[in-house]
Structure formats: structure tokens, C-alpha cells
Design brief:
The structure holds 2 protein chains of 2 kinds.
Chain A lengths: L1 E12 L2 E13 L5 E4 L6 H9 L6 E6 L3 E4 L12 H12 L3 H12 L14 H14 L4 E5 L7 H14 L4 E5 L3 H7 L2 E6 L2 E5 L2 H14 L1
Parallel strand pairs in A: 3-7, 3-8, 5-6, 6-7
Antiparallel strand pairs in A: 1-2, 1-4, 8-9
Chain B lengths: L2 H19 L10 H20 L9 H23 L16 H28 L10 H28 L1 H10 L18 H8 L2 H11 L12 H21 L8
Classes of the chains: A alpha/beta, B mainly alpha.
Chain lengths: 219, 256
């Protein structure tokens, strides 16, 4: 379960202030995947960062029960001079999972072959993405955070990653930001619409999508 | 799992990672942590040894410069490495598990271990070059190192926040502290300097660290200018201010 209690967050970007959430209280129940909807710049990604814990609230608090992932497929932390394997070891250590198991899992999943032991700076962007996705799948989280799911690799790899992710979701939930209503319907059962600093929770993702679409028509 | 175990786990992951990446692509990797100071001290001893006949203290130029340079590096090396702990690992802060403080503690531990090993090796090597036997008094040395680290930790914590908030201050700080090496008594004895100038030099807490460190090697008669109450007050004061700034202004926002 994740709960926001009277949470307020304002972001300042180059002198422009934007209220992302204003005195919001909402509960994300465990066991249901949630789609986050909102217009461009409403603060969906910021909200994901707040849930992840990489951004702090201005006021109010957030209560998290369960293990929450970093944004799926995040690869910014890979150190170019370290090999893929060394980078995986680092992530395993900070998350307290068995290093050798994770290294073996990612080796098989990411299909990097010899490159697994080469510095990450020699990787193509596709290889980096496969490595990142493999690490995310190798650790069991209660919540997976997804900011615009991006398919990587060739057709076979896409199919495999989609299948693995779906399997993960039998035990885990996803909190997803996407502009594609099809993807949201595919992965999520419930939805939250973020509009003018307010968050409204809908038990049914279709209802959330309908509200979001009528919001978009109003402007 | 409790917070302390998680913190220890993440810090050790950091230490391992920093060892592998610190000297990045330079061939030889971590050996440079030792080679750099050895090369510098060796060069200074040869150059200045050619000019003068005896160093200001003792009989060995190598030992005199080694004690000065290593004591200075205990502060400067630590401070410079810690202040970039967060900016240099910004990407890692995107892992919710990793907090900015983990990066600082990780670097502190690595730098502490490295500089101790480097100091031992160089000091023992330099002692071979003296003609008179030297009785090392460890209590002075340990104290000097402790004060250098306390100061470095405080200054780095404070500057992490201030550099982030005021980029102009960072430039000014860098320019103002650039002559620090010359003003810290590394290659002269501050109390041997002419009167008003020696007081100015001794007001620099890093000079005090260098003087205290050298007490462990040289028996000196007369006033060395060492002022322990002053050194204790300055270093704990800097530590307090640094921790205060770091706590009051959340650097978690530096994740962006």
C-alpha cells in the first residue's frame, strides 16, 4: 500500500512555479495496478519520483509499504568504465539481493554475450536498454514504476520481455505513466487522474481514461 | 531490515564501486593513489635539495616534505574528494535506496583507508633517507589526522550545500583557497617566518595540522606556534556548521 497524506509539492523550473499536487490525500491499494493520467506537464513523472522517494514533498507525508522499484529500464546509473556485470553487482549490493544470482539472471536475460564483461561505454543503446531491463526484472519488487514503457530489442526480445513483465505482475503491481490508453488498459486495472494539483482515484481504469479524455477536450 | 544495516550495505557497495572507477581509465588504476604523492615529494626533495644544504627540520629533505605534504593532503585530499561525492554520483541518486549521505560516507571511508596506507608507506620510505634515527610519536600524528578529517568532513558537508545553492560562491571559494598549499607550512616551518607573517600563517588551521603532525617526528626547542585549543575550536566549529547546513537544507533536492 502507498498512501499520500495531505501531500503538497510545488516544483520550480527556471523561475516558473508549478503546483503538482496541492494538499492531496490518496491511497494506492496493494494488488491492483494503477495508470497515471494527466495532460502534458501536469507532473506525472514528478509524482512517480515522489512515490519512488527520489523527490521529497514540500508538506504532508507519504507512507510506503512494500519494495518500490526505480523507474523501469532506468540506465542513467550505469558507469561507463565498469562492465555490465560490475554494474549489475553494484545494484545487487545496494538492494541486498544475492549478487551471483542476479548476475547470472541478467546474463541470461539480456543476451549480451561477451559484451557482458566489456565496459558499458562500448555498448550500443539497445544493449544498454536490455541490460537495464534485465536488472529491473531480476529483482522482485512489490511495485514497479513505469514512465512510458519503451520496447527494446528485436521482436523476439520484445516478446520475451513483455512475457517476463506480465509474469512479474502476478505478484507485483505497476504504477504506470503512459500516453497510450491501449497500454494502460492492457496493464492496469485502476487509474488516477492528475489535474490542477488534484488527484482523483478511479476503481476502473476505463472510467479514469474517460475522465481524462473529457478533461483534454475542455481545453 | 533496519536502517543501519541498509546504510552499511549501500556504503560498502559504494566503496567497491569507487575503487573501480576513481582512477577510471588511467592505466594502473588505484596505484596512482600512491604514485602521485611519491612523485610529488620526490620531485620537491630533489629540486629543493639541490638549492639548500639542510631542510628546516632534521636532516632529510624527503622526510621534511613528506610530513608536510601528507599532513596537508589529509585535509585537502579528503575535502576535495568528499565535496564532489554527491555531484559525482548524481545518477545513482535516482535509485530510491541510495541517499546522498551514503555517497559521502562511502568516500570518507575509502579516502581514509587510502590516505593512511599511502602515508605509512611514504613515511617509512622517507625515514630511510635520514642520517639520524627518528623516534616517531604516534599520538601527535593520530591527533593531527583526526583534526584534518574532522575539518574536511565539516567543510565538505557545508560546501556541498553551498556550492549547489550558490554557484558563484563555488568559484570564489576555489580561487580563494588555491594558495592554501603555499600558506599551510608544507615546505617551511611557520614559526621560523618573520613575526607578523608567522602569526598569519599560524591562524590557518591547516598550518596547525601540519605543525601538529610534524611534532610526531621532530623534537623542537622553543615555541612551534602550535595552539591546540584553537585547532579544537576551529575544527569542531567547522564540523558543526557543516552538519547544520547539510541537515537544514535537504540536498535530496540536488537529485534533479
Amino acid at each position: 500500500m502507498i498512501r499520500l497524506e495531505r501531500a503538497t509539492k510545488e516544483v520550480r523550473m527556471k523561475g516558473v512555479r508549478k503546483m503538482i499536487i496541492d494538499d492531496v490525500s490518496v491511497t494506492f491499494p496493494r494488488g491492483k495496478s494503477i495508470g497515471l493520467l494527466g495532460r502534458n506537464g501536469a507532473g506525472k513523472s514528478t509524482l512517480l519520483q515522489i512515490i519512488a522517494g527520489t523527490l521529497e514533498l514540500d508538506r504532508g507525508r507519504i507512507i510506503r509499504q512494500g519494495k518500490i522499484s526505480w523507474p523501469l529500464g532506468f540506465q542513467g546509473s550505469f558507469q561507463g568504465n565498469l562492465s555490465g556485470e560490475q554494474n549489475v553487482r553494484f545494484v545487487a549490493r545496494i538492494y541486498g539481493v544475492n549478487t551471483d544470482e542476479l548476475v547470472a539472471y541478467v546474463a541470461e536475460f539480456a543476451e549480451l554475450g561477451q559484451f557482458y564483461h566489456a565496459p558499458v561505454r562500448t555498448y550500443s543503446s539497445g544493449m544498454k536498454a536490455r541490460l537495464a531491463f534485465g536488472v529491473s526484472m531480476g529483482i522482485n519488487f512489490d511495485y514497479y514504476l513505469v514512465d512510458e514503457i519503451t520496447a527494446v530489442g528485436d521482436t523476439n526480445f520484445k516478446r520475451k520481455s513483455q512475457q517476463t513483465f506480465k509474469e512479474k505482475l502476478s505478484n507485483s503491481d505497476v504504477i504506470m505513466v503512459s500516453h497510450s490508453t491501449g497500454t494502460l488498459r492492457d496493464y492496469c486495472q485502476t487509474g488516477i487522474v492528475l489535474e490542477n494539483g488534484q488527484m482523483t482515484y478511479y476503481d476502473d481504469i476505463n472510467e479514469a481514461i474517460a475522465v481524462h479524455e473529457s478533461n483534454m477536450k475542455r481545453h | 531490515m533496519n536502517y543501519l544495516t541498509i546504510h552499511i550495505r549501500i556504503v560498502s557497495a559504494f566503496v567497491i564501486r569507487e575503487i573501480a572507477t576513481r582512477y577510471g581509465r588511467s592505466p594502473g588504476g588505484y596505484v596512482w593513489a600512491l604514485l602521485e604523492p611519491v612523485a610529488f615529494i620526490g620531485l620537491m626533495s630533489v629540486l629543493l635539495g639541490a638549492v639548500g644544504r639542510l631542510p628546516a627540520l632534521g636532516t632529510s629533505f624527503a622526510l621534511f616534505y613528506a610530513t608536510g605534504y601528507l599532513a596537508f593532503s589529509m585535509y585537502k585530499g579528503m575535502e576535495g574528494y568528499l565535496v564532489s561525492a554527491i555531484s559525482g554520483n548524481k545518477a545513482l541518486m535516482s535509485y530510491p535506496k541510495v541517499s546522498p549521505f551514503d555517497a559521502i560516507v562511502g568516500r570518507f571511508i575509502l579516502q581514509a583507508m587510502t590516505s593512511c596506507v599511502v602515508t605509512f608507506i611514504i613515511i617509512y620510505a622517507a625515514m630511510w633517507t635520514t642520517s639520524q634515527p627518528i623516534t616517531v610519536q604516534w599520538s601527535y600524528i593520530v591527533e593531527a589526522i583526526a583534526f584534518a578529517w574532522i575539518m574536511a568532513f565539516g567543510v565538505a558537508l557545508g560546501n556541498t550545500v553551498l556550492f549547489f545553492k550558490f554557484p558563484l560562491y563555488q568559484k570564489i571559494f576555489e580561487i580563494v583557497t588555491r594558495p592554501l598549499f603555499l600558506l599551510s607550512g608544507v615546505f617551511y616551518v611557520p614559526s621560523h617566518m618573520p613575526h607578523p607573517f608567522s602569526d598569519v600563517l599560524l591562524a590557518n588551521p591547516i598550518t596547525q595540522v601540519v605543525v601538529l603532525f610534524r611534532e610526531g617526528f621532530y623534537v623542537q626547542h622553543g615555541d612551534t606556534g602550535l595552539d591546540m585549543p584553537y585547532l579544537i575550536a576551529i575544527s569542531t566549529g567547522l564540523l558543526f556548521v557543516g552538519m547544520l547546513l547539510f541537515t537544514v537544507f535537504p540536498v535530496a533536492r540536488a537529485r534533479d
